[in-house]
Specification:
- The chain is α+β, with helices and mostly antiparallel strands.
- The protein folds into 3 domains: 4-90, 3-Layer(aba) Sandwich (Rossmann fold); 98-116 and 186-310, ATP-grasp fold, B domain (D-amino Acid Aminotransferase, Chain A, domain 1), CATH 3.30.470.20; 120-183, Dna Ligase, domain 1 (2-Layer Sandwich), CATH 3.30.1490.
- Helices cover 35% and strands 23% of the residues.
- The chain has helices at residues 22-38, 52-59, 77-84, 94-101, 103-112, 131-137, 165-173, 217-221, 236-253, 287-294, 299-310, and strands at residues 4-5, 8-16, 42-48, 63-66, 120-124, 143-146, 157-159, 178-183, 188-195, 201-202, 206-210, 226-229, 258-265, 272-277.
- Strand 13 and strand 14 form a beta hairpin.
- Helix 1 (22-38) crosses helix 11 (299-310).
- The longest helix is centred in the C-terminal third of the chain and has 18 residues, at 236-253.
- The radius of gyration is 19 Å and the shape is globular.
- Its main location: cytoplasm.
């Protein structure tokens, strides 16, 4: 490698962007930059904007560490640019990023590959007059309404009855023209972190316990509003099933590097996968670093491992 610092690869740490999760990105980048500096990498932080390509050409990094969340940083757009510039990068490639980011498309792939997920329908803006009837005749209330390409529960609503439908649709359609409408399932909310390329491994199960009863944006990123319980308080068979499904979903989507699969675990039943996040948060309050730590992988080691996987 031409661009090295004491034999270490030169890293471009990409953060910011224009998505609603840019503040989370900034926090992730702060933690990653601290680790890269400790590990003796020559790391340059680059805020993602319209000058990104020219800035990368000037810096000529050996590898890009992507610390963006949501939007073009996670949906394959940034990954495509890096492919064109022939710069290796952390995490999944273009197709896996795009598929995982669109929760509806991901769920269709899960179903096709016998990975259990809550039943769902979709609704398009301007063509949803009979939606309440469709919900009643198919999946039934209550439902979870999500803009399929948003993260951190942005635009998400839990709708218990028909009279609450209009407000939830208004909120969702402000963000995207098609919404995912999923059967609401009671259960323990868990996540399974996955690490690796050709032979990915599931890390310990992690249960999310909230003070508010709802793991929304505020709860995720405000200290003291949620607890991470490792391993999750589910039975042994559910843990096995969740880990198997997480790795299966990772492979079906074509993920690389790392990702996090989120599940709901109904009591005594098979865990249901909700989504796969291809750029998990790396903040002090994030789930993936806690799961890695429980597996004996400290934060600095995790950051180093992600760069090694990017360069494989």
């Amino acid at each position: 490698m031409a661009n090295t610092h004491n034999g270490m690869p030169k890293v471009a740490l990409l953060y910011g962007g224009s998505s609603k999760e840019r503040e989370v990105s900034r926090r992730s980048a702060q933690e990653v930059h601290r680790a890269l500096t400790t590990l003796n990498y020559l790391a340059t932080k680059i805020a993602v904007d319209n000058d990104l390509a020219s800035n990368l050409k000037k810096i000529k990094p050996d590898v890009a560490f992507i610390a963006l969340h949501g939007g073009s940083g996670e949906d394959g757009t940034l990954q495509a640019l890096l492919d064109v510039l022939e710069i290796p990068y952390t995490g999944s490639g273009v197709l896996a990023s795009a598929l995982a980011m669109h929760k509806t498309m991901a769920k269709r792939l899960f179903i096709a590959n016998n990975i259990s997920t809550p039943a769902f329908i979709t609704a398009r803006k301007g063509a949803h007059e009979d939606l309440a009837a469709r919900i009643k005749s198919s999946i039934g209330f209550p439902v979870v309404i999500k803009p399929p390409s948003q993260g951190s529960t942005i635009g998400l609503s839990i709708v218990h009855k028909e009279s609450d439908l209009r407000a939830a649709l208004r909120l969702g359609f402000e963000l995207e023209p098609e919404l995912l409408i999923e059967k609401f399932t009671e259960g323990v909310e868990i996540t399974v972190a996955v690490l690796g390329n050709e032979q990915p491994k599931a890390l310990p199960t992690l249960e999310i316990e909230t003070k508010t009863g709802f793991y929304d944006y505020e709860t995720k990123y405000t200290a003291g509003l949620s607890n991470h319980i490792i391993p999750a308080r589910i039975d042994t068979e559910q843990k096995r099933q969740a880990k198997k499904a997480a790795v299966g979903a990772y492979k079906v989507l074509g993920c690389r590097g790392f990702a996090r699969a989120d599940f709901i675990c109904p009591k005594g039943k098979e865990p249901l996968i909700l989504e796969v996040n291809t750029i998990p948060g790396l903040t002090k309050l994030s789930l993936f670093p806690d799961a890695a730590n429980a597996a004996g992988i400290g934060f600095n080691e995790l950051v180093n491992k992600l760069i090694e996987l990017a360069l494989e």
